[in-house]
């Protein structure tokens, strides 16, 4: 669990280096803004990039980037570069993140293309430890009973407060259960999103644009390749920015 926690804390693929390159490139230049095109590493004027912005009516698909003033914003004003599809700017990290999901306050790190898998594994292990720890504590502080021949269940809990250690163990187990239940809600939410190959940021944008259904699915999701293919892609590859979207 610690290994995957450290992996999740590693870089989610931040475009910071490029941002610094851009700031260096813009220094002393007569043109107001110059940016680096990530695909071919050429310098383009920001006016050219702004002219590529797509009108809201033509954006029929789900995109992680916001729509402002009737246009899809592909230019990050903080990092000064053209945001690839599926990326998003984080105000806490002050950087654009590749395939950004969200900023996790618990590990103080953005979840992006390079650490999303480790983040999910960390969550799963945390849940296992939380529920197993709760069950283990409860069957210790209470007198357990065997159900169906294999499952121990706390049965007689009359002596929970018989001594200090037992009482503390019981209260700690209750807090662990509460934390695990909250984590479970988040985990299910993540599973639903990954199953349709979308991110929290894309889901949020879809909600704002009325592209969300009542079943927590996203309409016109061009990244969705079906349940099995989405999971195979998530487990065995790193989700990269899609090149077929401007
Ligand atoms: Zn940015
Ligand atoms: Zn962040």
List the helices and strands and how they pair.
Elements: H1 2-9, H2 16-26, E1 34-36, E2 43-45, H3 46-51, E3 67-68, E4 71-72, E5 75-76, E6 81-82, E7 88-90, E8 95-97, E9 102-104, E10 109-111, H4 116-141, E11 143-147, E12 151-156, H5 164-195, H6 200-208, H7 227-236
Antiparallel strand pairs: 1-2, 3-4, 5-6, 7-8, 9-10, 11-12
Helix pairs in contact: 1-4, 4-5
The structure holds zinc ion (2 copies).
One zinc ion (ZN) binds next to strand 8.
Overview of this structure, please?
It comes from Mytilus galloprovincialis (Mediterranean mussel). Its main location: Golgi. Pfam families: DHHC. Its EC number is 2.3.1.225. It is a multi-pass membrane protein. The chain has 246 residues and is an alpha+beta fold. The protein folds into 2 domains: 14-100, no CATH class; 116-236, no CATH class. Helix content is 41%, strand content 15%. The protein has helices at 2-9, 16-26, 46-51, 116-141, 164-195, 200-208, 227-236; strands at residues 34-36, 43-45, 67-68, 71-72, 75-76, 81-82, 88-90, 95-97, 102-104, 109-111, 143-147, 151-156. Strands 1-2 form a two-stranded antiparallel ribbon. It has a two-stranded antiparallel ribbon with strand order 3-4. A hairpin with a 4-residue loop joins strand 7 (88-90) and strand 8. Mean pLDDT is 81; it is low at 17-42. Residues 76, 78-79, 89, 95-96 line the site of one zinc ion. The site of one zinc ion has 6 residues, from strand 8.
């Amino acid at each position: 669990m610690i290994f995957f926690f450290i992996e999740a804390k590693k870089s989610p693929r931040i475009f910071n280096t490029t941002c610094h390159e851009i700031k260096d490139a813009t220094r002393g230049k007569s043109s107001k803004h110059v940016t680096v095109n990530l695909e071919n590493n050429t310098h383009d004027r920001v006016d050219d990039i702004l002219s590529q912005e797509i009108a809201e009516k033509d954006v029929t698909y789900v995109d992680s980037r916001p729509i402002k003033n009737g246009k899809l914003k592909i230019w990050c004003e903080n990092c000064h570069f053209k945001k690839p599809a599926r990326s998003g700017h984080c105000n806490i990290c002050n950087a654009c993140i590749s395939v950004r999901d969200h900023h996790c306050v618990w590990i103080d790190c953005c979840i992006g293309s390079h650490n999303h898998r480790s983040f999910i594994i960390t969550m799963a292990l945390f849940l296992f430890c939380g529920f197993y720890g709760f069950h283990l504590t409860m069957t210790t502080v209470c007198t357990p009973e065997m159900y169906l021949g294999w499952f121990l269940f706390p049965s007689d809990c009359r002596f929970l407060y018989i001594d200090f250690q037992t009482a503390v163990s019981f209260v700690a187990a209750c807090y662990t259960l509460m934390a695990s239940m909250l984590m479970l809600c988040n985990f299910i939410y993540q599973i639903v999103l990954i199953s349709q190959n979308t991110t929290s940021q894309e889901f949020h944008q879809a909600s704002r644009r009325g592209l969300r259904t009542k079943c927590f699915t996203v309409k016109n999701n061009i990244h969705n390749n079906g349940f099995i293919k989405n999971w195979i892609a998530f487990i065995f590859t790193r989700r990269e920015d899609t090149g077929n979207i401007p």
